[in-house]
Amino acid sequence: MTSQVRGVQLARLLGQWHALPGRRRSPDYAALAAAVRGLLADGRLPLGVRLPAERELADALRISRTTVTAAYRELRESGHLASRRGAGSWTMLPGTHRVASTGLWTPLDDRDMIDLGVAALSAPPQLAAAARAAAEDLPRYLGGAGYHPTGIIELREAVAHAYTERGLPTSPEQIMVTSGTQHALDLVLRLALSPGGGVLVESPTYPNALAALSARRARITTHGLATDGAGWDADLLLGSIRQARPKLAYLIPEFQNPTGHLMETGLRERLVGAAHAAGTDLVIDESFVDLPLDDTPLPPPVALFDRHSRVISIGGMSKPYWGGLRIGWVRASAPQVQRLAAARVGVDMASPVLDQLVAVHLLAEAPSIVAARRAQLTAQRDALVGALAERLPDWRVAVPRGGVTLWAELDGPISSALARAAEEIGVRLAPGPRFGLDGTLERFLRLPFTLPAADLVEAVGRLAAVRYDLDRTGRPQWREPSVIA
Question: What whole-number distance in Å separates Cα of residue 196 and Cα of residue 47?
Answer without folding.
Answer: 23
